[in-house]
Amino acid sequence: MKLTDEEIADLREGGRRLVLILERLRREIKPGTNLQTLSRLAETEAKRQGGLPSFQGFEGYPAPVCLCVNDQVVHCIPSDTVLQAGDIITVDMGLYYRGLHTDAAVTWAVGQVSPIVKRLMDGAYAALLAGTSEVRSGAKVSAVSGAIEKTLTGKGLTIFRQFVGHGVGHRLHENPMIPNFTTPGSSPTLIAGTALAIEPIVGLGDEETITEADDWSVRTADGKPVAEFEHTVLVTDQGYEVITPLETLIGSPKS
C-alpha cells in the first residue's frame, strides 16, 4: 500500500530504531547466551524505542522475535537453547512504530564457523543485495526474484521456495509477495512509495523441511544449516532506499 510523505518519514525512523534493536541484540550473541534472554531483551528494547514487536501476536505467534539456530529455517519460537561456539543464529524481527511495520533479519556466527557455513552466509547476503539492486518504480517483481535466484543457484545454494518476501508497511505482510525464485506468468509491477521486505532464506542441503510440535518452528529435514538476510526497502522513482540498512550488523558479534 502506497505511503504518504509523512508515513515514509515515520517508516524511516522506525527502520532506524529496528536497526538499533538488532545492534543491541548482537552484543548478546555469544557462547552461553540463552535464547529466552535474547527474546526478553528484544521485547524490552522494542518498547524502549517507542514501538512494539511486530511479530508478537501476529496470527498467534507468541514471541517478540524469531530466533533460528543452525538447521532451523524460519518462524522459530525462542526456546531454552543455549548458544554454543560454532553455531549460527538468525535474528528476525519486526518493529511496529507510529502505525507502520518494518522487518529485518541477520544471520550471525557465534565465534568461528566452517568455510562452507561462511559461504552460506555470504551467499545469502549477496542474494539480498542482488535482488535489491533491481528495485525501482515500474520494475517487475520477477526482476528482483530473478536476481536472487541467479545469485543463489550460481553459488550452489538451496532456495526454500515455500518462504518468500512480501510488501510491508501498514500491515506486516502485504502484497506483492517477493519470491526468491522466478515463476511463470505475469508479475506485479513495483510502485513508488511502497515498501518491500526482501528476504532470501538459503540452505546447504535439501529443500525439505519439518515443522516442529509448536506448529511454528521449521527446520531442515536433513539437518543442514540455513541463513537469512532481510531488509525493508522503499521503492522510489529513482530506484530504492534501504530503510533498515544491515551493513553495520554484518560480521561476527563482539561482546
Automatic annotation (TrEMBL):
Cofactor, free-text remark: Binds 2 divalent metal cations per subunit. Has a high-affinity and a low affinity metal-binding site. The true nature of the physiological cofactor is under debate. The enzyme is active with cobalt, zinc, manganese or divalent iron ions. Most likely, methionine aminopeptidases function as mononuclear Fe(2+)-metalloproteases under physiological conditions, and the catalytically relevant metal-binding site has been assigned to the histidine-containing high-affinity site.
Annotated positions binding substrate = 75, 173
Sites where the protein binds a divalent metal cation 2: 103, 166, 199, 230
Peptidase M24 domain: from which residue to which, for each copy?
Answer: 11-237
User: According to the UniProt entry, what is the EC number of this protein?
Assistant: 3.4.11.18
Look up the domain of life of the source. Answer: Bacteria
Question: Among the entry's GO cellular component annotations, what is one?
Answer: cytosol
Q: Which family does it belong to?
A: Belongs to the peptidase M24A family. Methionine aminopeptidase type 1 subfamily.
How this chain assembles, per its entry, is: Monomer.
Protein name as catalogued: Methionine aminopeptidase
Q: What organism does the UniProt record list as the source?
A: candidate division Kazan bacterium RIFCSPLOWO2_01_FULL_45_19
What is the name of the gene encoding this protein?
A: map
